[in-house]
Amino acid sequence: MSTVFDVYAIVLLITSLAIFVNRYIRSEPPFLPYLVIACTCGAGNLVGEEINPFAGLAMLTAASFLFLSCLLYPHVRNMGQKPDDVEFETTN
Fold first, then answer.
1. N-term to C-term CA, the chain
2. Is the Cβ–Cβ distance between 48 and 3 less than 8 Å?
3. pTM (2 decimals)?
4. What pLDDT, on the 0 to 100 scale, is given for residue 2?
5. Staple 5 to which of 17, 23, 39, 48, CB 3.0 to 4.6 Å?
6. 68-75: which pairs have CB atoms within 8 A and are 24 or more residues apart?
C-alpha cells in the first residue's frame, strides 16, 4: 500500500536525482546537499509512516526547501558576478 509519504518522498528523490545527474554532466556540483535530500526523504518516509505523521511531513517539507535551494543556487551565485566580456580599466 502506498501512502502520501511514499509518493512525496519518491517524487522528491527522483527529481533531486535528475537535477543532480543533469548538473553532473555539465559541471562538478556539490554532492552533500543531494545526499542530505536523499537521507531526509528516507527518514521522513519512515517517521511519517511509523512514528508521527506531522514530524514526517515536517522532514519532507524541509527536504523540499533544501531541494529548492539547490535548484536556485547557481542562479543566485551568478547574480553578483560581473559579465566576463566587460572589463573595467582604471587609470591613475
1. 74
2. yes
3. 0.74
4. 82
5. 48
6. 69/33, 70/16, 70/19, 70/33, 70/34, 70/37, 71/19, 74/23
